[in-house]
Amino acid sequence: MDKFLVPLKPIPQLSTKPIRRRRWHRSLIELNGKLEPKYRHSVSGLLMQSYSELRAFRHLYHIDRNPCQTHVNRVVINGTYIPPSIKEGVSALDFDNKGIYLASVTRSGCLTVHDFETLYCQSNEPLLRLEEDEAKHVLHLSLHQQLDFVRWNCANQDEVVCTSMKRNEVLIFDISYISSTPSEVLRTKLRPAIFGSNIQKGLSDIAFTSCEDSRVLASDTDGVIHIWDRRTSTFPCLELTANPHGSLNSIQLNVENQIIFGAGKHGVIHAWDLRGGRTSSFFKGSKEVSRPPLTSLKLSSTLEKIGPLKEQSAIVSKEIHSINLDPCCPHQLAFHLDDGWSGVLDIHNLEVTHIHCPPPAWLNESVGSDLSYLRKPSWLPTNSIYVVGSSTDNGIHILDFYPDSSSPCHVDYNEDAHRLSGVKDQDKQNRFISLSEGVTACAVHPLNSTIITGTKHSSLLMVSQTHKSC
């Protein structure tokens, strides 16, 4: 019987050599099921390199089969674009919370609500059809007045709101039903001038509280933020005043709806506490009240504290075009200046932590900045990446503003230490993407990070990740 048995394998002798412990190389996502911020930052360079322009959508739309006002202002002779006698171009863009709709306004007075899925699908079609399918528009109105800003009501996504720097009205449109007239109009009170006449101030930017849809805030061209309670009146119930007076180009409300930031012409960032020292005091009074800022910061004074920057450039006060809070790092307040500079102000310690200074126009023989447009940048929803239109060239800058000294825009970034660390340079670089037209406004899809830009010629450019990079 023994011959049918399988012989036992000899038991191997245990090695007397010490066991070398291996380091754990698996990614953290396999351990906790989520992407850590530093891992996101380490691969963000691949995301930034994957963007390119997919399609341009010209504003060649019609109303009642006749060209709309923006279409009329697009003068093309023998295939050559001729600038019109009046200013035109896309002045602002905004996605709704889910990225289903994209709202845009033009200087010529058109308000359009696009179906994003239709735009995205058409971007993959052959270039034989250049015009957007107008039948898929949710809304297209020609209001016959300059429009400078548009925003969705974050507490009521059926409402899209726009303003003009030439008028003192907030126009609210309800897209749940089609109407050529606004569902509600909010107005500011006219201010008496020195000689007794009334002065009408235009409105430049809009903000909403996230808790309810009745609170509306708008900044004007005289350095005042007006606050409405739509349940009580179509006139403001509270005013926040800046000193010195001057146009407030941009406002931002923090995530707790307690602090509002404003910035504009004089290069100063203001902050107001809406609670007024008591959380219950906000919007309680029925009379209009004026309130000064909690603090004001001259941005040029903060930039002078950055030694290497001061050594290379003369720091002067510049107009602030836009401010934006980082959606994934709420203490980072991005700013963009009229000369094309961008940066980040840490609102905890009121210090500039990041700065990006593109070459001046004369250095690369580009045209100078067109100061008639207020450029409106936007954050990507993740990775602390800032997208801003170039002030001198046709294209956009995609900037790494990660809240750490590993960001190439950080004021404490050490290029030599970064190189010695073994991290690939291409993984930590800002990027400029050349586009077919000059950019005035940017909006980023909240879910898939597709970038839509508005241009000086009233076009929409779709900038998305290419399949090759994926």
TrEMBL record:
Gene3D superfamilies (alphabetical): YVTN repeat-like/Quinoprotein amine dehydrogenase (2.130.10.10)
Coiled coil: none
Species classification: Eukaryota, Viridiplantae, Streptophyta, Embryophyta, Tracheophyta
Top-level division of the source organism's lineage: Eukaryota
Keywords: Repeat, WD repeat
Name this protein carries in UniProt: Putative transcription factor WD40-like family
Organism field: Rosa chinensis (China rose)
Annotated transmembrane regions: none
